[in-house]
Amino acid sequence: MNKHQKAIEKAAEFVETKRDNAQKSPWQLAYHITTPANWMNDPNGFSTFNGKYHLFYQFHPYSPEWGPMHWGHVTSKDLVHWEEQPIALAPSEAYDVDGCFSGSAIEKDGMLYLMYTGNVWTGPDHDKDLKQVQCIAVSEDGIHFEKYEGNPVISEVPAGLDIHPYHFRDPKVWQEGNTYYCVLGSRTNDQQGQVLLYQSADLLEWEFVSVLARGEDGFSFMWECPDLFELDGKDVLLFSPQGVKPRGDYFKNLHQAGTLVGDWDRTSHTFTHDDFTMMDYGFDYYAPQSTLSPDGRRITIAWMAMWESQMPEQEHDWAGAMTLPREVWLDAENQVRSYPVRELEALRGEMQTGDLKPYIGELQVEFDLKKTAIAEMLLRVGENGEKTILRYDAITEKLELNRYNSGVGPGGIRRCHVPLRDGKLTLNIFMDRSSIEVFANRGEKSMTARIYPAAESTGFDVKVSAESTISSVLYWPFHS
Ligand code: FRU
Predict the structure, then answer these.
(1) pTM assigned to the model
(2) Distance from C-alpha of 184 to C-alpha of 322, rounded to nearest angstrom
(3) Mean pLDDT across the stretch 366-373?
(4) What is the sign, positive or negative, of the torsion defined by CA atoms of 184, 186, 192, 193?
(5) Would you say the ipTM is above 0.90?
(6) Which residue of 286, 326, 396, 443 has the fewest C-beta atoms within 10 A of its own C-beta?
(7) Are residues 87 and 182 in the same domain?
(8) Range of the domain at 247
(9) Do 231 and 186 share a structural domain?
(10) % helix, strand, coil for the chain, step of 5
């Protein structure tokens, strides 16, 4: 057994000592991806290989806090039912000894390649004293990975450009013709976020191509987890900028994730684009990554948690989860829309209407609203006073998610603009034991949040102001 395999084995043994606790947690999610125990952040290596979806994730198997990153791994045939796989990567080499940071996966010659960032701390200040390099690991069966002997495959940033030497991470790789490309998260020396583009013929030797995009002065100090893909005739750069200042109802999450929609010129390797737009307006959505489904849909998954947020499940030996897989597309105004994949309908039990107790399942409410209407929905209501409030104001056309009384855990309010379409508003709300994902008008806007009510808090109410109507209220409990 080599060093890497030993590190994996040791981590796996430790996870078993916490599994029961984590799985018995009353907040444990029923149909979202979580760890067997302990900490998770970003989705990594979202891909298809040998007829299955593969999703890896940033995993700290030794505690419910962030620490030296491993890669956890799950697979699925349908994006709905996920099977736990052995830990795929563990820090074990001089170049990744303090963490196998985020990255991606791609099939080549019948093998699954992972490209990830090796992280090394070179001193006590984790913002300044670090060295990040790009590495490869390869697997024949898609389950057991060997680190490439020639690692790191990118060990330095290109010289002579305004590129910070060490904040250099999160490779997302894809293929076009005979060329592999990858984008990498970066910053300038005076702290503007940017994305670097590289190319390779074989995934092992990489050549710097261009600084593909860079933030304007003061927009963000670092762009993490970039992903570039074609979508309905445009190119979309999806990434997670850190340090964006709130503006009105925008950029209110602790950190943001969003897109630049534009055109990547394949000759000059420049990218012209529109303004940055948020992917989700809730509280807990970060570091999304995409893959293509075999039938050509672009599917994204994000970390359903947030840096610097309270995570009450830590007391039960776990932390963090993935959002539902969401299909993305462009609307007529080149806005990115997203909605949970249709495969999730497989989870639906018998449809209910009337007196509802929505808990683990999907709720769909349709409104017919006058221009001055207020619609209000109370979810996860408890006798102890708990409630999560969704409110729509037809005058301002703002949808508001209020989790101040949602239970233990972080509070707060988020809002987003949802235009009323011919007086109609449809909300699809996916609820799990400690999460809520709200989709307005089937993907126009979404709001995602962790909430921590008591299991008994399953009361529900919906009302609208006079002269407006609730056209329908349907609920599907989900099989977990
Ligand atoms: C994003 C991130 C990445 C990094 C990883 C470390 O959430 O900060 O940039 O690779 O998490 O876990």
Answers:
(1) 0.97
(2) 22
(3) 95
(4) positive
(5) yes
(6) 396
(7) yes
(8) 3-342
(9) yes
(10) 5, 50, 45
Residue 407 structure tokens: 């239970």
Using the mean position of ligand 1's atoms as its centre, give its distance from the Cα of residue 240 in Å. Answer: 10
Q: State whether the beta carbon of 40 lies less than 6 angstroms from ligand 1.
A: no
Same structural domain for residues 338 and 406? no
**pLDDT class for 254, splitting at 50, 70, 90?**
confident
Residue identified by tokens 């610097």 is 308
Check which CATH number belongs to the domain holding 437 and give it. 2.60.120.560
Residues 415 and 334 reside in one and the same domain: no
Give the per-residue SS3 of 92-141. CCCCCCCEEEEEEEEEECCEEEEEEEEEEECCCCCCCCEEEEEEEEEECC
Question: Which sign, positive or negative, has the C-alpha torsion 142, 145, 151, 152?
Answer: positive
Q: Judging by beta carbons within 10 Å of its beta carbon (0-12, 13-18, 19+), is residue 280 exposed, middle or buried?
A: buried
Domain stop point among 323, 342, 361: 342
The total domain count for the chain is 2
455 is written with which tokens? Answer: 């299991």
- Ligand 1 close to Cβ of residue 169 (< 6 A): yes
118 and 72 co-located in one domain: yes
Same domain, 414 and 273: no
Report CA(220)–ligand 1 centroid distance (Å): 16
Catalytic, out of 20, 42, 127, 280: 42
Ligand 1 within 6 A of 101 CB? yes
- CATH code where residue 73 lies: 2.115.10.20
User: Do 304 and 379 reside in the same domain of the chain?
Assistant: no
Q: How far, in Å, CA of 401 to CA of 336, rounded?
A: 21
pLDDT 10s digits, 335-351:
999 999 999 999 999 99
Domain end position, chosen among 321, 342, 363? 342
Rg of the chain in Å (alpha carbons): 22
